[in-house]
Design a protein that fits this description.
Layout lengths: L1 E4 L5 H10 L9 H8 L7 E6 L2 E10 L4 E8 L8 H15 L5 E2 L7 H9 L31
Parallel strand pairs: 4-5
Antiparallel strand pairs: 1-2, 2-3, 3-4
The structure holds coenzyme A.
The site of coenzyme A has 19 residues, from strand 4, helix 3 and helix 4.
């Protein structure tokens, strides 16, 4: 897998990958999420390719205090080949280059496989309650949706 920054013509493949990986949510418009990321540290929006195929993503950012990783995804048919590990290593490398002392990320507590993946990479559970407040509603809010992940 080769890792590079997102390019505008990757958008369709990225959205398809996120849908295939179950990362899209009704309250997050993936195209709006991509457009917003391109306004801040676009060089930290990473994609992984095998040949011409886009197989992985990681949306990375440094806010001046902590690094954050969102939308880590590896295509189902390319999993368990250390692609996720490689993307996270590159994310950490780019964050350290910027002087970032710690990476934070959020995983649903029910997502035990991904929690185990991050444990293997040296991540530990912080004793914090993750809180968020939505500032921009991408779509009409649906009161039946439990917006537990304001991510
Ligand atoms: C999480 C994810 C990115 C892992 O990608 P991957 O390329 O398969 O992971 P790797 O092959 O790099 O795995 C690294 C280590 O994590 C562990 N691991 C990976 N997947 C695992 C799983 N499903 N269950 C338990 N451990 C796992 C393995 O121990 C592996 O170590 P090894 O290389 O010594 O075998 C991928 O499963 C994915 O895209 N999941 C769906 C999207 C998602 O939920 N993203 C996270 C949002 S918070």
């Amino acid at each position: 897998m080769k890792i590079r920054a997102f390019q505008s013509n990757d958008e369709e493949a990225v959205v398809a990958l996120w849908q295939a990986c179950g990362l899209t949510r009704p309250w997050n418009d993936p195209r709006a999420d991509i457009a917003r990321k391109l306004t801040e540290q676009p060089e930290l929006f990473l994609v992984g390719t095998v040949g011409a195929e886009l197989v992985a993503t990681a949306m990375v950012g440094f806010d001046g205090h902590r690094g954050w990783v969102y939308y880590l995804a590896v295509s189902p048919k390319h999993r368990k080949q250390s692609f996720g590990r490689a993307l996270m290593q590159q994310a950490e490398h780019l964050l350290m280059e910027r002087g970032c002392p710690k990476v934070n990320l959020a995983v649903r507590s029910s997502n035990s496989e991904v929690i185990e993946f991050y444990r293997q990479l040296g991540y530990v559970q912080d004793e914090v309650v993750s809180m968020g407040k939505r500032l921009i509603h991408d779509q009409t809010p649906n009161p039946s949706i439990n917006t537990d992940a304001a991510r």
